[in-house]
Structures are given as C-alpha cells and as structure tokens.
Give the backbone structure.
Amino acid sequence: MTAVDSSSVRNYLLGLQERITSALEQVEGPQGARFVRDAWAKGPQERLQGDGITKILEGGRIWERAGCGFSHVRGPQLPPSATQHRPELAGAPFEAMGVSLVFHPVNPLVPTVHMNVRMISAQPAGQEAVCWFGGGMDLTPVYGFEEDAQHFHSACRNALAPFGADLYPRFKTWCDEYFYLKHRQEQRGIGGIFFDDFAELGQARSFAMLQSVGDAFLGAYLPIVEKRQALPYTQAQVDFQRYRRGRYVEFNLVWDRGTHFGLQSGGRTESILLSMPLHTNWSYQRQDPPGSPEAELLTKYLVRRDWISA
C-alpha cells in the first residue's frame, strides 16, 4: 500500500485552516472580531516534538468563541487513546497531524459546530509504517430546526458519496454512538459523521475522502449561520444555551478521544482545550415545561434519527 506523503497532508491541512478562519472573519464583517494567530513549537526536550498554529477568536459579533487549531507532532510512543483499537501498535513511535475546530456562537439559535480531520502514522519496530485517517463533523443546536439538521446531514452525505454509498450511514451511526454522554444518557447534538482508524480505501483514496470531508465543512455550516444569526433572542434563551454548553464541556473532558490523546501524549494544553466555551453554567436537575422548545431539544432533537428523510 503506497503511503501518502506527509508533506502533502500538512499542506492541505494548513490551507484548510486558513480557508475556514478567513471565511469566519468574512461573516463577522468589518466590525467583527478577528482570529489571533498563535504559532507554537515543541523542542527535543519535551515529550512531543513538532509545531502548530492555534487560531482563536473571542468576543465576536457572531461567535462568542471560535477555535481552529493545526498541529503536527511526533512522539516516541502512541498514547493509550490511540491504541485501544490497535493493541499491536502499543508503544510504537508515531506522527500525528490534524485540524480541529469548535465554534460557539453568540446567538443561542445558531448551533455550535465541531469538525476534525487528522492523519496518524506509526512505525512499529521491524515492521512497515501504518497510517490511518480520522475525523468528521457534528452539529450541536441549543434550539432545534429540522431544516438545519437536514441541510447539515445532506452535506455530510454528499461529501462521502463519491467514495461509497455505504460510508454515510456507517459514519452517521458511528457519530451517533461516539458523541453520546454515557453518564447522562444523552446525545451531544444532532450528529453528523465520524470515522477513525480509517484506511480501507487505500492511502491515496482515504486521504481524498478526508479532503472531501474537510472541504464540505463551510457549505454544511455557514448557510445555517447566515439563516439564524440575526434572529432575535432572549436572556432566558442565553441562560439555556449556557446550561447546554455544560454538557459540551462534560463530553470533551470525560469522553473525547482527541482530548485524551492530546493530554496523554504531552500536547499543548491551551490548544487542546480550544473547544471550551467562553461562558457556561450548570443547574441541578433542571426541568423544562413539557412542550417547550427547551424540553423539545431532548425529546425531538437529541435523539438518533434519520434527518435526511425527515
């Protein structure tokens, strides 16, 4: 199996990060916030070696906090979070690179979104290098709109369609199962697609699929933002938004493999935690009136369902 040149993956990921952050700044407009660019490097004295660029926007007109990070690191041994499905690679030297983003909007009627695309390669002693891809995107509304869920899932399906009709239903189910708060018995959002340890199309074709997912992100998300960002909202809705963001924090810290990989491998903590919202709160056993939009989030939207045919 011909390996993908890591410089090609790096160049694609850096270009993707730039395209996405530039697009968000355009939506923010001339009076809006801009991304701060924080380039970093890890030297030979640290657990990981490599470099990255963290871009962060805070206090914007449209986004309260938006983080989009690129990282490219190497280490002496894969952390446990990366080998739980590949025990034969435990302890192998590795290289990992990816772009990860989470955007938390100001308006509670605009959904939070997450996207990640990454490549990991490992070099077991005396064996050929093993390379695989992972990533996906998912949407987390506070107030649900069926047409938004349908648009987002259709974009995900269309990105995968050239690579096999079976991929969207597989990756959609994988996303539903992955972004699930087991301790709450709740879905994190309305899902999307998720894949990991993926190389079954061959290196070149799997990388092409990864690029298709990354390239589809702006078309999947920005039309929803443009439709919802000017809608009026109340302080009560903001309070509910911050309450629901507590669930987002819980998932990322307790269950997310990407967070665990970064922290276990000695990654840069500030960049790993770019997914955290600027404002959040918790409420003890909150109960919303039956039939209210807040109650409907749980009963109608945070459920596993076929959104495209809805």
The mean pLDDT is 90. Residues 203-228 form the longest helix (26 residues). The CA atoms of residues 81 and 260 lie 6 Å apart. The beta strands are 36-42, 49-58, 63-75, 94-105, 112-122, 130-140, 180-181, 186-187, 191-198.
